[in-house]
Every structure is written in structure tokens, then in C-alpha cells.
């Protein structure tokens, strides 16, 4: 009996109402914002590029999170436990929520890797990011989290459904499982499968981009200094500029420019060519990468409170609030797109104002919708 009395239960109704209100805010803002993001890319070719395939994948995961959070809103407002007859609905909602968190993390890692390859290895970018490869990649972004969060529960390692401890549709705590089934292994699989590898990819990618850009800037300054000296020396400089364009940028699919400047220096003693190659990355790509890094930083800030709670055994009373903060990430990304990316902002407002004829570079879908009217 003592153990039962010491077991924490989130049964304070005023606190549950507070959590429910936070969930409602996430539901309303997230559903609206992520739907706008998806529609914007669908309706304008200006936003249709490789990076935005993964941005849309992130928006779909966030939209599903916001839609299924409605089950937890109902669960929080209920004065009694979830009805047994609809337990399966709660199990599905809990599984989708957990899986979508995994999809978000892996998609953020994919976006970081995408920017790394685009900026530092342009030729490799063209070989990798082709439609069949992208389709398989997106499928894996959903399959891997499914295998980590839902598949173990299907085979009896952990369980999904209504958790009486926190009054939510999620994974069920040990003390409420009807059979001998420790959730420690299930929790370990989730944490080990979702967090370390994507975070390593993200930190490696963005750190490599920073180092590459700094090195690139130093090389460019040195090149300009050498070129200035050559203007007053005996040698002459012949400069060729080779412009390589890719079809990827978050702002404009045709605006990515990576230029390679090749300088050949002829000496008076020998008729030999010494070619030096230095690359300069467009400011647009750097700005896009910075903005996408902000998306990751916001997610990390929302994840930290929940991660801290998992590290402490006595954090049960705080976990519902940490989960609410984690879910808030699902409605923040569209705000970042609207404030940091001018093209997204413009198309968002045109959609909200129903000015379909003003949307730049209309997609075939939008043209068909216009024609049907």
C-alpha cells in the first residue's frame, strides 16, 4: 500500500486544464501554420526544390502531431479515465505522437546534411539528390522512427495507449501495465534510436559548414591580395570564372550560385600554368543555412526540458509541462518561415488573402485550380 501511495499521478484538475490549454494553442497554431507551409510549396514552383522536400516532410510530421494532440486535450479535460471501448484510438494517437517526434529529429538531421553537401560538395549533391533517391530517403525518415517507437510495442516491448499516470495518450508507465512488461528497455530504445545519431549528424554538418565558410573567406581574401600584388608585379594574371548553378535553395530553386574562381599565373621564365581553385558560396545559401540552423536550435530548446526530466527520477510532476514545451516546437517552425524567409512570408499572406492569381510561379496544381473556376 505504501508503494501505491507514493506513486505520482497527475490528478490535479486545475493543472490538467492548464496543460490542456497549452495543447489547444499548439493545435490551433500548428494546424494552421503547417497547413500553410504545405500549401505554399504545393502552389508555387518558386518554393519547390530539394531542401523544401524535407521542409515539407517536417511540416507533415508537425501537422500530424498537432492533429493527434487533440486526443490528449480530451484526455486532460476528462474527469474520469479514458473509456476502454476506445482504447485503440488512444493507442494510435500515442504511437503517432511518438513517431512524429522521431520523424522531426531525423528530418532536421537530413536538412543539415543536405545543406552540408550542397555547400561543401556541390558535384556530389547533383549525384545524390535525384527524385528516386529523395523518395526512398523520405520513406526511410518515416520507417526508421516507426521501427523505433511503434514496432517494439507491437511485439510486447512496452505499450501504447492511455497512461493513467499522466492522463495522456502515450506510452504506458510500468505500474499500469496488466502484465509483466518493463518499459525501461522500450524507453532506452526510443532515446538511443532517436537522439544520438541525428544530433551527431546535425552538429557535424553545421560545424563543417562553419569551418568551410571560414576557410573559404580566408582563401578569398588571400586571392584578392595576390591579385592586387600581381597588378603591380612582372607576372600577369588571367582569370576565368566558372559558375556552377544548382537547383536548390529554400528561397528560390533557381538562385543558387557556387562559383569557382580559377587563376592562372604565367611567369616570364617558363610558359607553365599554375591553376589555383578557390570557391565562394553565395550569401543566399549561407543565409538559408543560418535560418535552418535556427529551426534546429528552436527544436533543441524545446527538447531540453523533457530530456532533463528523463535524467531525474523525481521529475514526474514536471513532465507534463516539459511535454507541452516539446509539442510547442510543432507550431513554431511556420513562424520562423514567415519571419525569416521572404518568399514564404509573401506566399503565406497571398494564401490567407485568397489572392491566388498573385502567387509567383504558380504550380500545375494551382493552374488547374484556377482553370476549374
Automatic annotation (TrEMBL):
Localisation per UniProt entry: Cell membrane
Entry keyword set: Cell membrane, G-protein coupled receptor, Membrane, Receptor, Transducer, Transmembrane, Transmembrane helix
G-protein coupled receptors family 1 profile domain mapped to chain residues: 33-337
InterPro entries in alphabetical order: GPCR_Rhodpsn, GPCR_Rhodpsn_7TM
UniProt feature coiled coil, ranges: none
Transmembrane helix found in the keyword field: yes
Primary localization: membrane
Keyword Cell wall biogenesis/degradation included in the entry's annotation: no
Single GO term (MF): G protein-coupled receptor activity
Matching Pfam families: 7tm_1
Any GO CC annotation of this UniProt entry: plasma membrane
Membrane-crossing segments per the record: 17-43, 55-80, 92-113, 134-155, 188-213, 292-312, 318-338
Membrane disposition: Multi-pass membrane protein
Similarity field: Belongs to the G-protein coupled receptor 1 family.
Name used for this protein in its record: G-protein coupled receptor moody
Amino acid at each position: 500500500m505504501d508503494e501505491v501511495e507514493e506513486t505520482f499521478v497527475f490528478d490535479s484538475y486545475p493543472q490538467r486544464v492548464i496543460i490542456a490549454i497549452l495543447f489547444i494553442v499548439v493545435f490551433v497554431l500548428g494546424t494552421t501554420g503547417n497547413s500553410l507551409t504545405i500549401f505554399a510549396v504545393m502552389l508555387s514552383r518558386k518554393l519547390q526544390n530539394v531542401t523544401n522536400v524535407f521542409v515539407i516532410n517536417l511540416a507533415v510530421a508537425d501537422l500530424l502531431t498537432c492533429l493527434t494532440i487533440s486526443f490528449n486535450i480530451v484526455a486532460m479535460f476528462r474527469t474520469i479515465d479514458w473509456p476502454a471501448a476506445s482504447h485503440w484510438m488512444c493507442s494510435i494517437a500515442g504511437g503517432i505522437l511518438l513517431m512524429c517526434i522521431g520523424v522531426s529529429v531525423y528530418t532536421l538531421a537530413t536538412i543539415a546534411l543536405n545543406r552540408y553537401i550542397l555547400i561543401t560538395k556541390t558535384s556530389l549533391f547533383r549525384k545524390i539528390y535525384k527524385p528516386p533517391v529523395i523518395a526512398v530517403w523520405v520513406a526511410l525518415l518515416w520507417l526508421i522512427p516507426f521501427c523505433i517507437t511503434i514496432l517494439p510495442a507491437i511485439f510486447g516491448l512496452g505499450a501504447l495507449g492511455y497512461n493513467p499516470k499522466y492522463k495522456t495518450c502515450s506510452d504506458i508507465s510500468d505500474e499500469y501495465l496488466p502484465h509483466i512488461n518493463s518499459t525501461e528497455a522500450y524507453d532506452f530504445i526510443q532515446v538511443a534510436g532517436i537522439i544520438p545519431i541525428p544530433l551527431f549528424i546535425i552538429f557535424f554538418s553545421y560545424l563543417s559548414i562553419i569551418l568551410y565558410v571560414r576557410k573559404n573567406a580566408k582563401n578569398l581574401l588571400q586571392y584578392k591580395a595576390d591579385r592586387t600584388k600581381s597588378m603591380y608585379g612582372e607576372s600577369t594574371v588571367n582569370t576565368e570564372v566558372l559558375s556552377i548553378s544548382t537547383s536548390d535553395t529554400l528561397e528560390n530553386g533557381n538562385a543558387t550560385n557556387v562559383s569557382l574562381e580559377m587563376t592562372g599565373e604565367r611567369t616570364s621564365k617558363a610558359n607553365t600554368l599554375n591553376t589555383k581553385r578557390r570557391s565562394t558560396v553565395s550569401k543566399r545559401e549561407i543565409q538559408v543555412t543560418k535560418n535552418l540552423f535556427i529551426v534546429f536550435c528552436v527544436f533543441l530548446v524545446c527538447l531540453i526540458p523533457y530530456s532533463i526530466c528523463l535524467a531525474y527520477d523525481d521529475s514526474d510532476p514536471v513532465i507534463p509541462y516539459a511535454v507541452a514545451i516539446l509539442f510547442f516546437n510543432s507550431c513554431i517552425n511556420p513562424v520562423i518561415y514567415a519571419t525569416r524567409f521572404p518568399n514564404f512570408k509573401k506566399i503565406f499572406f497571398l494564401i490567407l488573402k485568397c489572392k491566388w492569381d498573385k502567387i509567383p510561379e504558380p504550380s500545375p496544381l494551382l493552374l488547374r485550380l484556377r482553370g476549374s473556376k
